[in-house]
Amino acid sequence: NVAALGELWKGGGAGCHNMIMVTLGTGVGGGIIVNDKVIAGAHGAGGEIGHAHVIDGMQEACNCGNHGCLEQYISEPAVLSRYRELSGRTTVSIDDLVWAYNQKETAALAVTDEFTTYLACGINNLWNLFSPECIILNCQLTAYLPQLLPEILQKLSPRFRATCHLKLSTLQDTGVLLGAAKVCISKYLGTEKLYFSGLQP
After folding, report:
1. Beta-carbon neighbour count of residue 89 at 10 Å?
2. The sheet that has 37-39: what strands, in order across it?
3. pLDDT digit string (tens) for 53-105?
4. Measuring CA to CA, how many Å separate 194 from each of 3, 30, 199?
5. Are 40 and 47 a contacting pair, CB within 8 Å?
6. Distance in angstroms (rounded) separating the CA atoms of residues 64 and 68
């Protein structure tokens, strides 16, 4: 949530009033901003994008207790696990995957194709639910391989491409610090309620 505020304040979401930030790391989360307010939900769990069941026919077990959660297909551990499976390697890192992709290795190309397909599925659902002006991706893999962005866009609906901007985060981890600073400043000034909707004190 604070990373989304950081992007809205000083990043790619500047000038937007309706924005979603998707973070892909050890898990998949996000911050949803509607009419300049973070939608945190009744218990602060709004934006748990990774636990949306959006992969039709997929039954991969998730640590949340459900099956087929998006996180099991596009989080960093999930992508690396799939790359180990297809490449036959025992240990791999994001750097290994990036290098193999640039070398046009078959396994790496297959993994990134699956990644962009599943990610586009999740993004398309978010867009249909919230109709944001922009969606920002904070992801190590896309940061290293920005050429994946056109692939993701190609897999999104034409209506998405006509009405919403898909961007890569320029702030990365700095967005969390900036967003937290924004919250502190707002709390000091007594204006924090302007930025959060539904979050219990």
Report:
1. 13
2. 165-168, 134-139, 19-24, 28-34, 37-39, 196-197
3. 655 556 666 666 566 678 888 999 999 999 999 999 999 999 999 999 999 99
4. 16, 19, 12
5. yes
6. 11
Q: How far is it, in rounded angstroms, from Cα 59 to Cα 117?
A: 17
Tokens encoding 126: 């978010």
Reading phi first (left if > 0) and then psi (alpha if -120 to 50, else beta), residue 37 is in: beta
pLDDT above 90 covers a percentage of the chain that reads: 43
Amino acid type, 189: L
pLDDT of residue 118 exceeding 80: yes
Q: What phi, psi does 195 have (nearest 5°)? A: -110, -15
Show the tokens assigned to 55: 């992969």
Taking the C-alpha atoms of residue 70 and residue 60, their distance in angstroms, rounded to an integer, is 9
What mean pLDDT do residues 131-148 have? 94
Strand partners, 19: 33, 134
Residues near 192 by beta carbon (within 8 Å), at least 6 away in sequence: 183, 186
| CB within 8 Å of 151: residues ≥ 6 apart | 112, 113, 116
